Amino acid sequence: MQDDVTDATHWTIDNRIADPAQICAYGAYASLMATVVEPELYQRAVGLAGIYDLTLLDRTGDVRDAVPAKPICRLSSVTILRYLVLVLKLSS
Hints:
Blueprint lengths: L1 H13 L9 E4 L1 H9 L6 E5 L5 H7 L24 E4 L4
Parallel strand pairs: 1-2, 2-3
């Protein structure tokens, strides 16, 4: 899925639909992963109510069977980001 997001973003730039200086990733986990995997492509990111720490989810979450035994979370690489990231959590 992450490659599909990157491919679609490149397509919008290549077809002059999007300005490469104004690319923002929006969503949840995938939006923040996009900024880690492709730090040169995105200038901003917005994460909304996502799961951002798969290791913590594995230890404390209620979906343990859905997460690999040794989850890999590259979001620990967040220190490579060079711009602001907005993460929102909603409550009822």
